[in-house]
Amino acid sequence: MRKTKMFRGALAAICLTVGLASSRAALAASGGPAVHDAWARATPPGVTTGAVYLKIVGGDENDRLIRVRTEAAEAAEVHTEVSAGGVVTMKKLETLPVPAGAVITLAPGHDHLMLMGLKEPLRPGEKIDVTLTFEHAGDVAVEVPVRDARTSSREAPHEHSMPTHEGSAAAQPSKSMHGATEGPPASAETSKR
Amino acid sequence: LLERQLRTKLNDKRRQRIWLLLPLAVAAFVAGGLLSLRLVRAPSVTTPAVPTINGTVLPEPRPLSPFELVATDGSPFTPKDFQGHWSFVYFGYTYCPDVCPLTMVELADVKQRLAKEAPGLGEQYYLVSVDPARDTPDRMREYVGYFDPEFHGLTGKDDEIGKLAKQVGAFYLKPSGQDQKSYVVSHSSTITVIDPRGRFHAVFSAPHQADQVAADFLKILAHYRETVAPKS
Description:
The complex is a heterodimer of chains A (193) and B (232). Chain A has four helices and eleven strands, in the order αβββββββββββααα. Chain A has helices at 2-27, 168-171, 174-180, 186-192, and strands at 34-41, 49-57, 63-70, 73-84, 87-93, 96-98, 103-106, 112-118, 127-134, 138-147, 165-166. In chain A, strands 1, 2, 3, 4, 5, 6, 7, 8, 9, 10 and 11 form an eleven-stranded mixed β-sheet that branches. In chain A, a hairpin with a 3-residue loop joins strand 9 and strand 10 (138-147). In chain B, helix 3 (99-117) packs across helix 6 (210-227). In chain B, the strands form two sheets. Chain B has an eight-stranded mixed β-sheet with strand order 1-10-9-4-5-6-2-3, with helices on both faces. A two-stranded antiparallel sheet of chain B has the order 7-8. In chain B, 41% of the residues lie in helices and 19% in strands. Chain B has helices spanning 2-10, 12-40, 99-117, 137-147, 158-167, 210-227, and strands at residues 55-63, 69-71, 76-77, 87-92, 124-129, 152-155, 172-173, 186-188, 191-194, 199-204. The interface between A and B is large, with 37 and 43 residues.
C-alpha cells in the first residue's frame, strides 16, 4: 500500500515538475537555465548551516552549475545525499550537469544547496540572495524566501518519494503526461520540442 | 541486526517473496502448534508473531549494556533512564541541514498523532548527537526545543555515544579531509524504539513519514501489551 502511495506521489511530482518545466521554459526566451521554486529552510536556534531547495530548468544547450555563492553565508555548495543501507552521506558536487530541457530538483531528503557559516540565522519571511553560476550561461541571481518548514512532509508533496535528477530522459515523456493530467496551458508544451 | 535491516530495506523483491511465503509459514506454524499441543498436551497460549513494520521488530528485545551520555541539563543519562516509558531515538546532529530537521519534524508529528491515538502513553523522544565536538548540551537543548519543547537531546563523549549506537545498529562517521568548522557527518537515519523495560525493541527504516511511523508503533504497542505486559 505504501508503495503504491509512494509511486503515485512520485508520478504526481514528476507530472508537476515536468509541467512547470515546460510552461516556464516557454517563458524563458533567453535560452539559459532558469531557477524556480527556490526556498530555504529556516534554521533552528544556534545553527549556522542551512539548506536551499530549488528547481533548475535546463536551457537550450547543455550546461553545468559550477558555483554557488551568497552573502548570507561563508560558503555554499551543492550537496547530494546518498542513502545506502540506512546511512545518509552528504557529498559535495563540484559541478552539477544541467542538460538542455532537463529539470533538476533539489528537494528535502535528497539534494540541496548547503550554506555553511551563516552570518545570520535564516528567519521565516526573510529573503536571501543566492547566485548560481553556470559554465555557459553565467550568473543567475535568485531571491530565496526563507520558510518555516516545521510541518510534516505529508503536507508538502515534494518530499521523500520524488526522484531528484530527472535528466532529459525523464523530461521527455512530458507530452504524454500532460495528456493525462490537468497540466499547464497547451502552448507551453509545443515550445521546446 | 544492521545486516538484517539492510536486507529488509534493500530487497523489496525479497520482501515480497516473504509475503508470499507468509501464508505458508503461518500454516506451518499453526500445524506445528497443533502438533506440539497434541504431543505435549500443554494448554499453552501461542505467542502472536511480531508485527510487520517499515523496519524491524526484534523477535527478542535486547537489554542495553552500560553507557553514559549527557542530557541537556548536563546530568548523566544511563540505560536505566530509558526505563518506564517508550522511547524514540534518532541519531543526528544540529549542524545537519537536511535529513535531521526533516526527521525531527516527522517525530514532532508522530508525537501529536500518538497524543491522540495513545493518550497518556508518555513516550519520550531523543536526539542523540553524532557530533559531540560541536553539540554541547546547551546547543542540543536549543535545537530539539525548536521542534518540540518536550524533546530530549543527548550528547557526551564520542565513545559513550558509540556504545549506544553500536547496540542499536546505528552508525556514524565523520569523513576525513573536511574543514574543521563546517564539516558534515554521515549517519544512519533510522529511528530506534526502546521499550519501557529499557530494551532495544524495534527500528524504523528511513525515509520516515509520521503517519507510517505512528501506525507501525501502535502495532508494536498492541503486540507488546498482548505479550509482554501481562507478565510484568
